[in-house]
Design a protein that fits this description.
Jelly Rolls, mainly beta, three-stranded antiparallel sheet, six-stranded antiparallel sheet, 11 strands, 130 residues
């Protein structure tokens, strides 16, 4: 949902920016939990931006063509992420680049910002057995 900006005095009629209020976006189910997704239709942005909430354990999956970058906003003290055969402890402030083909799944409560390039395509998501 785009927030309606106030017009500054003397500003141009055409806006060259876009403002998104994630609190107005309805979360959708995903293998990680729920995601609020935006900007996938923005020509000036090469991907999409998601705020994702994980409750408990995410379903392991990978993407054939997408690169995801997770920025951890908040997480349980014992939260971890599976990256192929490795397990990495999570903490707020971490960034994790997940290239195509990398099996990944978070275990533990977590909220993250997910930058997806190119824009998210649900058909690119491949679930795997745990």
């Amino acid at each position: 949902m785009a927030a309606e900006p106030q017009k500054a005095e003397g500003s141009a009629e055409r806006r060259t920016y876009r403002v998104v209020d994630f609190s107005g976006i309805v979360p959708v189910p995903c293998p990680c939990g729920t995601a609020r997704r935006a900007l996938g239709d923005e020509p000036a942005f090469p991907g999409s931006l998601h705020v994702t909430r994980v409750e408990g354990r995410a379903r392991p999956h990978f993407h054939r063509h997408l690169t995801e970058t997770y920025y951890i906003l908040a997480c349980d003290p014992d939260a971890t992420i599976r990256l192929d055969d490795d397990r990495v402890a999570l903490r707020p402030g971490m960034a994790i680049v997940i290239p195509p083909g990398t099996v990944h799944a978070i275990d533990g409560g977590c909220e993250l910002l997910n930058i997806v390039v190119p824009a998210f395509d649900p058909s690119d998501e491949q679930l795997v057995d745990d």
